[in-house]
Amino acid sequence: MITINKSGIGRGLKEAVEKLSGVDGDVCLQCKKCSSGCSVASLAKTRPSEIIRLLHLGAGEELLTSDLVWMCVSCETCSARCPMGIDVAGVIDALRSLALQRGAPKPEGNMPLFNKAFLKTVEVFGRPYDIAMIAAYKIGTGKFMNDTEKFPAMLKKGKIALLPAMGVDCATVRRIFKQARKNRGRRS
Amino acid sequence: MKYAYYPGCSSESTARDMNRSTLAVAKKLKLDFEEPKGWTCCGATAGHQTDRLLGIALSAANLAKVKDMKLDMVVNCAACYNRMKTANYEISSHDAVRQNVRDAIEKDYDGTVRVRHLLEVLLEDIGLQTITKSLKRTLSGLKVASYYGCLLVRPPEIIKFDDPENPKSLDRLVTAMGGVSLDWPCKVDCCGGSLSLSRTDVVVRLTETIIDMAVRSGAECIAVSCPMCQINLDMRQQDINRSYGKNLRMPVLYITQLLGLCMGLSPEELGFEKLMVSPADVLKKMEVNSHE
């Protein structure tokens, strides 16, 4: 059963998603090609076609807290196969941005924290910096031991950069982050 | 032929072997690669998942640098390639996006730099005939499952690379090198990409399906052209074996590593020592001596 909650963090979500993604989900035929091809549909509770349907019905909070929003791997299969040309992956991107902006509860696995840790090092160094990113992510999750067994082999094989890259145009990157923040402020 | 070569950030960490083999193969083919000065991160998956402008502008900053170089941009990382093409598409289709990007990078970039994947340069600019002539040894009938993943082929209306459901670029190279390119159903499936650390369970499940299918299709190795695919398929086999009680040891190689070997380069020159699953059986079949 579909229940709709239009209040709280979900207020005006349909319009916000349409504005951010430029996608008109109302043309969806519910053919479910997106769900059939979805890489993670068998693992998530919600299917991509349900996301588009919920959006059409004017749903709010349940979309921002759907597990698919952060389990989606951005493989773009849904968008590529939609007969109506709906950029489903673009809708999911917009939902992720709005979930962050509106403070939706953190999902299992903490993808937002990983993205934040990754982007923070990009903002500071111009390119991602492995050691700082992994440290920030692990401190955030509190799960220090996950994957640590691979560290010695990865270090030995030079798969983790120990030092940040040099000679990078950091000034432009910082300006981009600043402008993106300013833009978000203007929207909300 | 001269190109602006965008190495991508993986080339400095998990995919040094991709970078090393790309440059070695390029040198053999007399391709002149020049890095854009001070190049920066394309924003990757984290960028566009967080903020649309952030994702586009981070890529556009590099495209604007290449615009000044008056060259085509060549990229080997499928993820960077995808982001660069998306930025071009968004900037040239929406004036508002172009304006926002201009405010962010303080340059008016028009979205017109030609972005090429290394495979396109190899197949279109150089051609299979020239490549075949440059080979010193063959893959000796090695059975190769060519794996393209997502970002090289999707979304098709933006990326316009090969056939989005059944691409053949890697297969054509494998065949030209004297390998057997396998017809298998996971060519454009997803490895889980950037969920590797945050949802390892999802990545283990997705990579298990892909590698298991490669095994059942008779593959002796998987050939890739994306650092995300490579690290997920290569590094997660240990986790798959533990989680699913399997004994997988499928070598996952960059196409440039295979190409370099056939051009007579040594495994060391192509970064073979960086692979997690040993490529010893591949080298043995090709009768290549490695110092390892």
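qc> The mean pLDDT of chain A is 92.
qc> done
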